Amino acid sequence: MRIKILPWLLIWVLFFGAGAFAQTAQLEVSAVTFSIHPKVGSPSTSSRTGHKIKSVYGDLKNTILLLKDDDEQVCLFTTPLALVNEKAFDYISGKLSALLNIPKEAVIINSSHDHTVPTVDFLLSEMPDQSSPEYLTWELGKEFETEIEKATEKLSKESTPVTVEWGVAEENRITYNRKGYREDGRSYFVREEDRLNIEGKGYHGVIDPDAAVVIFKDVDAKPIAAISFFTGHPVAAYNPEKLISYGQFPQLGSEILSEHLGGAPVAFVQGCAGNINSKHMLTGTIEQARELGEQLGESLILATTRLKPSKRSGIELKQIIVKVPLNELPSEAQLRKDLERIDDFIKRGNDGDENTLECIGMNFPKALSPPYRAKLVDMVRPWYVWALEQHTTFNLNNIPDELPVPMVVARFGDVGFVGLPYEAFVETGLKIKREADLPYVLTCGYTNGAYGYIPDAKGADDMEYMSGNYRYRPGLFKEWMSRKDSVPADLYNAHRYCPPYKAPAGDAFAIDAIDILSGMAR
Question: Does the reported pTM lie above 0.85?
Fold first, then answer.
């Protein structure tokens, strides 16, 4: 997708430099934001026990950004909705492809991974009974479909030549690294109650503090659209047993930026937040959640005072498959021992035992009820049963040694974009930023897919909730399996679950992304 350099423009660059070329580039942008309106009683994507949303705080905003460079187009769609499976991504990318008449591969979808949002029936199955909670899910899907069609109709009528500028401010008040290590070297999930006990309330650990903006301006230097970027799970005031609907800091911060830019649509992209939390998870209030959004808004506005014009022009887009290495399964003896611990924990949790706080590498907060903690452990039990079966059926030779995962890499002017279809750890994102040749890179998880957590190289052997999340996720090989005409039973059994990750694990994406960005920087 490189822009074509006409002879007269080449002469212009030789005499006046690349900066002048950037100002003459005819990259065009159109953007629109639309809202949907959840209702009390809606099912949530973030409850394991069927709890429903009890309070709704405002609408949920989605933004579509369409970039055109000569005959090439790239569409960026950003949403607070939790796109928890491939079907949701396929629906939205297919919808945008059809409505905008662009290839499906030209659509980039990024979710802020907001935990306080309702479930949406994107596939619009048969209308449920209107008295059921599922009807609200279906109704919201219908509203989403109507609004995205209106938005794209408006989008296709508006396209403005723009230049690209970017700026960054530091924001370290909102998030903290939720992966800690005990004295014996074991990793654990740093819950809110733990955070408050580590170095006082000021603890944040290794985070990505960048509150970044990419602004597209017309010939009069008026902002036409913007991208906002920050890294952190939007979980303030989130409790899976006391659910709310709220757009969290990504939406409020972007709304504040939009107002500052005269109403220009702002598309928020979520960073590599796999091990990064916002404060106030499980115990926070809506007022505390709003405060975090206001803090992000302040920092995004500060970033607009530090804008740098792009020296490069045009857009580029590349998609590849990254092969993530996988490790061997634990021994048969270890798996049997772990299953005994799991069954004991589940029984005690269901009986209301408050001393159910740690099991098979995972730790749980007191803010969750013992039965809920038992449910979280019960969800990984099938992985251990599967792993044990591979030993007892002598099927270990069929266990895969790599997981193929797609990745998208793009460039808008001087700004790189890396889209990872999983919950990438912050260390992977920081590695890309440090080693990429472009001036700035938006390192994003939650893009074009939902493969769960994949740790960085250092954390590949850890077992806390994030690093050991493969235990929660059957079907990671579904795409691979679907490409086969027929799959022998032993191969199907071996691919039902994913083995542990092996170093470099998630950093395999960083290695490939850095190489691609190097080519785009030339």
Answer: yes
